[in-house]
Amino acid sequence: MSLETVKQQTLTMLQLQDDMNSKVHPEWRVQGNAWYRAIWIECGELMDHYGWKWWKHQTPDTEQVALELVDIWHFGLSILLEGGASPDAIADQVARELVINTDQTDLRLDVEAFTAATLADQQFHLDLFGRLLAGVNMDYAELYRRYVGKNVLNFFRQDNGYKDGTYRKLWFDGREDNEHLVEVVEALDASAQSFSKDVYTALGDRYSRP
């Protein structure tokens, strides 16, 4: 993937994150949200999915680990945006610092290093996050596809009564919205600039089916 593509996709994700945070609170940048705390809690959940208990048999659930990394990315983008840099500057920073590679064979050690750094200064460490992506073989294109899908679904839920309890999580065929989301994002062109809008439209078409 070219650096220009990385920057463009980062700009898209930054806008989506700003939109979602603003939906929760218009002045979210000055609310003092503990994004770092959300990150280390997600790291703990990630470890549970990966497995760390030596007294019982555990098989790493890499799909759930990947989902936790996407959640962490939401909070990481929020930290970067709250720092005050322009979206273009943040996109340049991501392209420069997010190197998806690791020399560590045990993902848990990379998770602990990332968590320790997060707790130490309450910032988002792109270099260490890149090591986590490498640990589950997730490239930037996959992170983008998963992030946009989850973000758009969150918007769709809010727009269709999630807050007041009228939203239907089970859609046609008795399947949950998350399952439909997987099919939607796999069927669409994630490289298209209209990807997020296409996902929202496709979700709406499925939600309206009897």
TrEMBL record:
Keywords: Hydrolase. One of its GO terms (molecular function) is dUTP diphosphatase activity. The keyword Hydrolase applies. It comes from the Bacteria. Its EC number is 3.6.1.23. The keyword Hydrolase applies. Pfam families: dUTPase_2. This is dUTP diphosphatase. It comes from Gilvimarinus gilvus.
